[in-house]
Design a protein that fits this description.
- The protein has about 400 residues and is α/β, with parallel strands linked by helices.
- About 40% of the residues lie in helices and about 20% in strands.
- The chain is built from 17 helices and 14 strands.
- The strands form three sheets. A nine-stranded mixed β-sheet has the order 7-8-6-5-4-3-2-1-9, sandwiched between helices. Strands 10-11-12 form a three-stranded antiparallel β-sheet, with no helix packed on it. A two-stranded antiparallel sheet has the order 13-14.
- Strand 3, helix 3 and strand 4 form a beta-alpha-beta unit.
């Protein structure tokens, strides 16, 4: 057997597009209606300049995943999105078989634009449906209908995409147990390779938060949400979609490799407003204001601060992050791997706290690893806060 000692290290790339045709009432991501194509073109140019500045620093890496998210990347003019994709491949030594994902809204693509993405090497499409009920979509202020989603899905297949994710949500206004089961039945019959199912969170700074009492009144209670979640897991499993993370389900061979980098504490670089990175032992995030971000990367000698967060993770922080992210996965956390990575015993540090969760059914042991049960996953923030003794999970979560 021959070994290539010059093989480069692997890396994930995330590129954030902060534009949408309209802002959804529940969304707290960094996104807004762009206003003009000139602004979008300038932003793409700024992204390219920013990536260029990392070319030498990442020369020992060969990215094997690329994820263009948002916002809605497909709101970009087709030529601008193509310019961005070509630049990514020119600047970075992306592997030939890299997983290359682009997020899309059903109301923002055509068969022609999807075929162009495929020709450019995009091989995974993530389509935001959220619900197959038009009344629920309206409540979420989505700009598409169920029919437009079906049309988009069929166009994606016609464009030869054979790795498609569909995003769904539960716990949304007007949604019932039965309507969620109908949505899952509807989507699984179409047969995407991957399904993400997220619980609606009412986040500060959103219209849903401003009207949170009304939103909660129109939504299922916590017990019903739990029943929805566990029934969804069972229905998806019966249709061939195995759960591998709190919110993610895949057919065999189609787990999202890019997202697994986050959950396995592997390295990734993010570009764009609010984009987070974990690179060379440092975790950092770029500024959220597009009006500051663009001039900052257009002239790196300017005095405009480019990062909003920048820290070197010490051992204790890396332990906490590893525990939090590994327990999101159905495979859980293996104490042997923890000892190899950190040189200490997981049980000696956290065993006392784990006992109550093992006894009350929120946690189990599987193949030598500690893992959350579906009940534990539903209240994972509470469990992780208790184990790790912190209140703000977002401080570790970053953009994940």
């Amino acid at each position: 057997m021959e070994f290539d000692f010059n093989e480069k290290k692997r890396l994930g790339l995330y590129i954030h597009i902060p534009f949408c045709r309209s802002k959804c009432a529940y969304c707290d991501f960094n996104s807004a209606v762009p206003g003009s194509e000139e602004l979008m073109s300038r932003y793409v140019s700024a992204l390219i300049s920013h990536m260029e500045s990392y070319k030498d620093g990442a020369k020992e890496y060969s990215p094997d995943t690329v994820f263009i998210g948002g916002g809605t990347p497909t709101v970009l003019p087709t030529g601008e999105l193509a310019r961005l994709i070509k630049a990514i491949r020119r600047i970075f030594d992306v592997t030939k078989k890299a997983e290359f994902t682009v997020e899309a809204n059903p109301a923002t693509v055509t068969l022609k634009s999807l075929k162009q993405l495929k020709r450019l090497g995009v091989n995974r499409l993530s389509i935001g449906l959220q619900s197959a009920d038009n009344n629920e979509l309206k409540a979420l202020s989505r700009i598409h209908t169920r029919g437009q989603f079906v049309e988009t899905f069929k166009m994606a297949r016609a464009a030869k995409f054979d790795n498609i994710n569909v995003d769904l949500m539960f716990g949304i206004p007007y949604q019932t147990y039965d309507s969620l089961m109908h949505t899952i039945d509807f989507v699984t019959r179409l047969g995407p390779e991957h399904i993400s199912l997220y619980n609606l969170k009412i986040e500060p700074g959103t219209p849903f938060f401003e009207n949170r009492d009304k939103v909660r009144e129109l939504s299922a209670d916590e017990d019903t949400e739990y029943a929805m979640y566990t029934a969804a897991i069972d229905l998806l499993a019966s249709r061939g979609y195995a759960q591998y993370e709190i919110s993610n389900f895949a057919r065999p061979g189609y787990k999202c490799i890019h997202n697994l980098k986050y959950w396995n504490c592997e390295e990734y670089l993010g570009f764009g407003v609010s984009a987070h990175s974990y690179f060379n032992g440092n975790r950092f995030a770029f500024i959220p204001d597009i009006k500051q971000y663009m001039p900052a990367v257009e002239d790196l000698t300017s005095n405009i601060p480019l990062t909003s967060e920048n820290e070197h993770l010490e051992t204790r922080e890396r332990m906490g992050e590893y525990i939090m992210l590994r327990l999101r996965l159905c495979d859980g956390l293996n104490p042997k791997d923890f000892a190899i990575r950190f040189g200490v015993s997981f049980e000696s540090m956290y065993g006392a706290k784990l006992k109550k969760f093992l006894s009350n059914g929120f946690m189990t042991t599987r193949n030598g690893a500690y893992a959350l049960t579906p009940a534990g996953m539903f209240v994972s923030n509470y469990i992780l806060s208790d184990i790790l003794e912190f209140e703000d999970l977002g401080s570790l979560m970053g953009s994940i």
